[in-house]
Structures are given as structure tokens and as C-alpha cells.
Amino acid sequence: MVAFVQTQAAGVVAEEQASSGVGLFPFSWRKRAFAYAMEHDMDTYESAIEPVKSALFSAHLKALDVTSSTLLEIGLGTGANFAYYPRGLHVLAVEPNVHMRQYAEPRARRHAIHLTYLATTAENLQIVPDASVDAVVSTLTLCSVDDPRAVLNQIARVLKPGGRFLFIEHVCADPQQHPWMNLAQRALDPLQQIVADGCHLCRGTGDLIAAERCFARVDVSRFQVPGSALGLISPHVSGVAYKKAEG
């Protein structure tokens, strides 16, 4: 299956590069700057979220047979999740920002991850066959896709029966519990989309995943990531969405 995807992806690399704004100013400059920031300015966040990632990924990925299993990660970024994946795992990656690759590819080699990029978007995964991947991962990604519902339906389609979608996402603050943070998120959301590669501060991603009927079961936890430096992205959800098993 990986070989099939590699062949299909090779034919549309030019389309991916065009859509990512390579060579265009200032759009390409913003993409490049955002990739640099994700590589060099996320230490505080990654340290704070480490217990959540460690628990989620070890519970659901540790048992994967790396000789035959495939994981799809949407919004791969700089490959920050590779440290939690089993060594030798085959990972299909969706990452429209091509400037992320200079950071993700060396990290994949360090963690013995077999990495294949898909030249497409998370809403348009037709090059991935139905029921062909064992797990899908999204961390800090559904905040920036154009159509979250379309992405979730694509995730459910490509998962094998019984497969799992693992997610960690920042979300809109509860207006009852954190009214001032919710107000600030809404006020700054347009600016956030410009400086953070399309990221929205005000998405209710946990509720959206829980409401999708394409999954047989969804477990969602809501929490605040500690650290004042994280500010408006501290409200989070994490969890697992299960595709119905056969039979």
C-alpha cells in the first residue's frame, strides 16, 4: 500500500508546491517563518503536553506491528510526534507547508520512521485507499484545515475496521468557565489565522469529533495545558475515535 501511495503522490508534487506558496512573497515567507517557529519555539508546549502524548500514543500505538502497520498523520509539521511512535513504523504524512520537511525528515531518520509524504490535503485523501491504515494521528491540525468535517470523514474512510483516530487539539475556551479567554480568542482569531498558517483559535473540535457519526465511539478529555506562556491555546481536547470493527 505504501508503494502505491508513493507512486500516486509523485505525480502531484508540483501541485502541492504551487498550493503551498513556494516562491511567492510574502505568502512563502510566512510559511517559512511558521515552519521555523514550529521547530524552534515549541519547547515549552512540547514539555507541557508530553504526559498527554506519552499516555495517548503508548496506549494505542505500542501494539502496532511495524512490519505490517501503517499510520497516517495529518498536519505532520516538524515531526514532533515521531519520538512517541514505534521505531520502524511506516508513516504517511500530509503536510501542505513544504518548509516543514527540512525539520521532519532528519527527525524521521533519528527515530527510524519510514516516512512517505502525500502531496494532497487532509480534505482530499483519495490517493489513500479505503480501509488501508491502522491509525490516524492529528495534533494541532484540525484548527487549521479548511473543512474539519470533510477531514473527519476522510479519516474514517481510510481507517481499517477497528482502527483508531488519535487527536490532541487546542480549542475554544468555554465561555461559561473562561469568558475573558473566550472573548480574547474571538477577538484575535483573524490575526491568528494570518500569522499561524490558517490556525483558528475558536473551533470546538472536541464537540465536532464527538458528534460525527462516521465513528462508532469517541472518547474525549478536556483539559488546560499548564504554562502561562501558552496563553490562548491552553484549552485542549485529546482522545480517541474508533472506527466500527467488522462483524
Automatic annotation (TrEMBL):
Gene3D superfamilies: Vaccinia Virus protein VP39 (3.40.50.150). It comes from Porphyridium purpureum (Red alga). SUPFAM superfamilies: S-adenosyl-L-methionine-dependent methyltransferases. PANTHER family: METHYLTRANSFERASE LIKE 7A (PTHR45036:SF1), METHYLTRANSFERASE LIKE 7B (PTHR45036). It holds the Pfam family Methyltransf_11. Residues 72-167 form the Methyltransferase type domain. This is Methyltransferase-like protein 7B. Coiled coil: none annotated. InterPro entries: Methyltransf_11, SAM-dependent_MTases_sf, Thiol_S-MT. Keywords: Methyltransferase, Transferase. The keyword Amino-acid biosynthesis does not apply. One of its GO terms (molecular function) is S-adenosylmethionine-dependent methyltransferase activity. GO terms for biological process: methylation.
